[in-house]
Amino acid sequence: MERIAKTVAREGSFYAAVTFFVVLAAFPFYWMLITAFKTNADLYNINNIPFWFNAPPTLEHFRYLFEKTLFGRWLLNSLIIGVCVVGITLATAIPAGYALARLAGRKAEALGIGIFLTYLVPPTLLFLPLSRIITLIGLQNSMWSLVVVYPTFTIPFCTWLLMGFFKTVPREIEEAAIVDGCSLLGSFVKMVIPLSLPAILTVIIFTFTLTLQEFVYALTFISSSSQKPITLGVATDLIRGDIYYWGELMAGALIASIPVAIAYNLFLDRFIAGITGGAVK
Amino acid sequence: MVAITERLRERRSRFQFVLDRPQVLGSLFLSPAILYVLVLVGLPFLLAIYYALSAYTIYNPSYHFVGLSNFIEVVQSQTFRRTLVNTFVFTIASQFLGLILGKFGALLLLRPFAGRKIVRALIVLPWAVPIALATVAWEWMFDSLYSVINWTLEAVGLMNPANAPNWLGEPTLAMICVIIVNAWRFFPFAIVIFLAGITAVPQDVLDAATVDGAGFWRRNYQIIVPMILPIVVVGLIFGTVFTFTDLSIVYLLTQGGPVNATQVLGNLGFQIGILSGDVAHGAAISLFMLPVLFVLVILMLRFIRRREI
After folding, report:
1. What is the pTM for the complete model shown?
2. B-chain residues near A117 (CB < 8 A)
3. In a domain? residue A46
4. Which of A27, A256, B3, B255 has the most crowded Cβ, counting Cβ within 10 A?
């Protein structure tokens, strides 16, 4: 009897702890969700219980977002920026990662670590000179400035990630292709790349989410509403003076968050493998 | 006709021959990435140092060399000294809190239970979702009038509505808020890092230790902790770098206020260098991050190298 009571107590405290962590992590998103669908009358009445609907849910905030703000435009901007940055990143990081994986010796290793370390150079150190450079090349206040600048952190990260992957592709595959008459380049294009599609897909997803998460450069370079990416637009444009459009803010944040949340969860393990760079064997 | 194609093939193969040298192809493959990084990371970095040593503003773009006087002026400003202390408090407190939450969370998630995948997916959210958007949600939760936190405290009788805290309006509370939001953002990262480390500890090592009579704590502190240390340190360095240099949480929640109580280096550099256009002083402020970054990078290198052994 006593043993049963003990087990129940232990299980109970285990699930209580799990619940605590889930509530801690997810409550702000629940709060986002419920705010986005509440009517203003319901939101701004402190006598209502805030955790649930006291009036029927509404789509009014979403309608406002799409009809009276540039929300649709921000979504499109983010999509364009994301696609372009993915293109630039793939074109540079795939060959670089492959070269670093295959070139032997200390030099190549140092070069790999050097590229990876540039991922740690923070935007707040570079935003001043970069904003001058952006002005010099005539891209100030344009979303194309972000297309130019975002690869500075996606290339190092993705090169490192791909290098780790290419190292797991056995050399024998290329050697066999070369024996069969392929050139070195040909063996890479025809054998290694098709084998690496899962890794390349991971890189595409992460480059895209990194561009969505970025805030500092966007804030620094872009001030006109029509050029903003979604994260910046939602966080800075829906606040007019001191008036916060909380319903619209939360609706916008919700829409922008969902794809990133799903992508992250699907590719989490590969991301961790990349970031720890084989610190664990 | 035959002769022409023959010659063409010959030329093509000579070109191929060059490309078939691993060294040539290697440097050809590496150069775009390295060029990109050199032009848009290396060059701006040098430019930042150059600005910090000049009297450059956006209104008067002269590269008049002024030596270290920008740095001296910055250090003498009381706002800056407060900012520097704030930045350390913000970084250390939120990383510490994040690590503790991460360790406990990882211990919970190690055990298989029904719904573990969903729980993990929910716990990862704060780290996955763009921090600017999550911060806006927190701002709404800290609202001076409609704060859900205050409502709950009041409903359970812990707080009198008359002295409801103004979370973002009082210096100490505002600091606690930005620390909490940052710790909240990083603890899922700490959890996955710990999990990756612990699951990589070979089970047979643990079994052998158990057979030899090691209890839970000895297994924990003499086997698991030393084995996962490299990966945890790498994770911690990541967290520290991104926290120490961050501006988005502070910018969106408090703008550094009230009266610079939550001002951090990144945000101050932004306010002075971008908003006020005083590029020289802004660059000098940002460069004060460098010594800390330098130490962290050296630590990182040591731990990345260690795995080679």
Report:
1. 0.87
2. 297, 300-301
3. no
4. A256
